[in-house]
């Protein structure tokens, strides 16, 4: 069966680039095609299933006015409308809502254009209980499913890693070289002679300025940028501690059993992560998907 996945891979965000690897690993018997907001002229006629996910794709950031369609939603709508027109099953898999900082209380307005699509989807699996609550509240559905993020299923091709040493910092949000608390952490790490690596897991447009500041302020620090999911996972797995402001920095730390720290004031998706739920439950996304796969 040919399955089309719509996500945000290919832009240099390590977390988003992880999902195609997970799906390819767990669905080897099917033909998988991956798309993002660089819209194709058309979807192949023989696509039998459309999957929106994974990642924080359920947002309307940049809409003017706030309850109008954002450029992002217009791109996503291209694919969802195609599935509806063809009558093929489609849905949201390992997705999450994503809001501008401290704007999540306005979800009813911000997500209004998504409501018809949430109502029509064949399946909805979301990566936090709070996302499920919001989805059901605005859509009227009661069958959205909470499961840990699908990236928890990712493992590099070879599991051997180096002996853990040093601290890895994954910059994003408050975890940046200009932050006062980060400066405090770095003084402590310097006093203990712990080697520090700044691991960029975001796109250049997001992380570039922070890496430039790292070079200015901490010239002895090691910087790892432009790496893919395997190199990032290995770097984190070979660490004694991870300090991360990025969601998938936390996911990789948990999946490789490395202690991690996140700021107290973190974005929506980190705030609502349920650490009591086994990471292995992420396999439930694939169980849901297989109900709609032919052949």
Question: Can you tell me about this structure?
Answer:
The structure is a single chain. The chain has 295 residues and is of the alpha/beta class. It has 2 domains: 2-148 and 277-290, Rossmann fold, CATH 3.40.50; 167-271, Glycogen Phosphorylase B (Rossmann fold). It has helices at residues 14-26, 71-86, 107-110, 115-120, 129-139, 180-191, 204-217, 229-237, 247-255, 268-271, 284-290; strands spanning 2-6, 31-35, 47-52, 55-58, 90-97, 123-126, 145-146, 167-170, 196-199, 222-224, 241-244, 260-261. Strands 1, 2, 3, 4, 5, 6 and 7 form a 7-stranded parallel β-sheet that branches. The radius of gyration is 19 Å and the shape is globular.
Strand tally, please?
Answer: 12
- Write the element-wise H/E pattern from the N-terminal end onward: EHEEEHEHHEHEEHEHEHEHEHH
Quote the beta fraction.
15-25%
Largest sheet: 7 strands, parallel
Shape: globular
Distance between the termini: 6 Å
CATH class of the largest domain reads Alpha Beta
Oligomer: single chain
Mean pLDDT: 92
| Contiguous helical run count | 11
In short:
The chain is α/β, with parallel strands linked by helices.
What's the structural blueprint in terms of helices and strands?
Layout: E1 2-6, H1 14-26, E2 31-35, E3 47-52, E4 55-58, H2 71-86, E5 90-97, H3 107-110, H4 115-120, E6 123-126, H5 129-139, E7 145-146, E8 167-170, H6 180-191, E9 196-199, H7 204-217, E10 222-224, H8 229-237, E11 241-244, H9 247-255, E12 260-261, H10 268-271, H11 284-290
Parallel strand pairs: 1-2, 1-3, 3-5, 4-5, 5-6, 6-7, 8-9, 8-11, 9-10, 11-12
């Amino acid at each position: 069966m040919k399955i089309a996945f719509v996500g945000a891979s290919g832009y240099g965000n390590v977390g988003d680039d992880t999902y195609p690897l997970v799906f390819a690993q767990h669905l080897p018997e099917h033909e998988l095609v991956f798309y993002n907001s660089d819209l194709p002229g058309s979807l192949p006629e023989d696509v039998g299933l459309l999957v929106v996910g994974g990642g924080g794709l359920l947002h309307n950031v940049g809409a003017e006015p706030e309850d109008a369609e954002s450029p992002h939603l217009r791109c996503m709508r291209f694919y969802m409308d195609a599935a509806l027109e063809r009558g093929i099953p489609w849905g949201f898999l390992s997705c999450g809502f994503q809001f501008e900082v401290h704007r999540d209380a306005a979800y009813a307005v911000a997500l209004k254009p998504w409501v018809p699509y949430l109502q029509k989807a064949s399946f909805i699996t979301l990566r936090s209980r709070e996302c499920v609550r919001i989805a059901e509240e605005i859509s009227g559905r009661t069958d959205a499913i909470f499961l840990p993020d699908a990236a928890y299923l990712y493992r590099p091709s070879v599991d051997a890693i180096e002996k853990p040493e040093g601290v890895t910092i994954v910059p994003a949000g408050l975890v940046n070289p200009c932050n006062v608390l980060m400066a405090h952490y770095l003084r402590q790490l310097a006093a203990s002679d712990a080697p520090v690596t700044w691991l960029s897991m975001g796109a250049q447009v997001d992380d570039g300025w922070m890496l430039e500041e790292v070079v200015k302020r901490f010239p002895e620090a090691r910087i790892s940028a432009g790496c893919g999911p395997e190199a990032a996972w290995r770097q984190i797995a070979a660490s004694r501690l991870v300090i991360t402001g990025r969601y998938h920095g936390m996911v990789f730390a948990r999946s490789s059993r490395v202690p991690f720290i996140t700021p107290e004031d973190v974005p929506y998706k980190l705030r609502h992560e349920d650490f009591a739920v086994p990471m292995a439950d992420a396999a439930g996304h694939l169980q849901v998907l297989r109900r709609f796969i032919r052949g």
